[in-house]
Design goal:
The protein has helices at residues 130-134, 142-148, 157-167, 173-187, 203-211, 216-229; strands at residues 5-11, 22-28, 30-32, 35-37, 42-46, 61-70, 74-77, 83-86, 90-96, 102-113, 118-126, 189-190, 213-214, 234-241, 244-245, 251-254, 258-266, 270-273. With 281 residues, the chain is α+β, with helices and mostly antiparallel strands.
Length: 281
């Protein structure tokens, strides 16, 4: 991993200092054969002059805008979760929900951006507190359970049993997600390199019980798999961790900040990011 800069982000609105920011490139729904796929999304043209998309949750959310200055060629537009609008024309990859709202996976600029170009995004950030998350319940919309509980048939029984053991005695998805997060942070060693997956092994079973070390892709996928096995909708997101916060409040994001993390769905509150990777604060 290099220290080369990818982009710098300027906050155009005041947000709580303590909020944990991620710069998401894409969210994935389907996990098969050790890989994540965007099988449920479709692409449609996006015009910045059009109204921002509406999302299927609005409690404990506020809108904030961010300006990205690129230092490399990019076509995927990075944004905090959950993105609603981008200043560059192109395409948006999304799933449409029955109520007319959009479940956005990624924005792509067309034409792509050259080094030194600037774009702006608007995102709906969460301000949900722990009490709200604990009380959100499990009344998930059908589109959420149909899209975000999928698991391949080869997830092993001991993986499912581990999830049940971690969740034992807990009565709400937030506390279970926190318990899974802490289990992974405390029991899996962070390593930037891993050996090749042995033949005929399911990747997450191997990671959790034999290898017991790895990097963010493994930690985050393991959390999604463990939560889905318990009936808690979750998905996999990739992009960058927040990077270095500068004195002027902007963020300097390097290639070494490349990251993956799980997002967990809470009724009416929407997607919430969790951080199981032990190398991250």
């Amino acid at each position: 991993l290099t220290d080369s800069q990818v982009f710098q982000v300027t906050l155009l609105d005041d947000i709580p200092f303590a909020i944990r920011l991620y710069w998401r490139a894409r969210a994935y729904a389907t996990y098969e054969d050790g890989q994540w796929l965007s099988s449920d999304t479709r692409s449609q043209p996006f015009d910045p002059l059009a109204e921002p998309f509406s999302i299927p949750f609005d409690e404990a959310r506020y809108l904030a805008s961010f300006e990205f200055a690129t230092t490399s060629h990019i076509s995927t537009l990075f944004s905090p979760p959950q993105p609603l609008w981008a200043s560059r024309p192109g395409t948006v990859e999304l799933s449409s929900n029955p109520d007319g709202t959009a479940d956005i996976s990624a924005f792509r600029a067309n034409p792509g951006l050259k080094p030194g170009e600037i774009y702006t995004v608007q995102a709906a950030l969460t301000e949900a507190n722990i009490a709200q998350l604990r009380e959100a319940g499990t009344d998930y919309p059908d589109w959420v359970t149909e899209r975000y509980l999928q698991l391949p048939e080869n997830i092993t029984q001991r993986t499912r049993d581990l999830a049940a053991d971690i969740a034992f005695g807990l009565d709400n998805p937030y506390d279970i997600a926190q318990a899974v997060t802490q289990y992974l942070r405390q029991n899996i060693e962070y390593s930037e390199t891993v050996p090749n997956l042995p033949p005929r092994r399911e990747a997450i079973d191997w990671f959790l019980f034999d290898l017991r070390r790895g990097f963010c892709n493994y930690y985050s996928t393991a959390e999604v798999v463990l939560l889905r096995s318990l009936g808690i909708p979750a998905r996999w997101s990739v992009g960058y961790a927040r990077g270095e916060r500068l004195d002027d409040g902007s963020y300097f994001v390097r290639q070494r900040d490349a990251h993956a993390w799980p997002e967990v769905y809470f009724p009416n509150l929407g997607w919430i990011e969790f951080e199981p990777t032990a190398s991250q604060p």
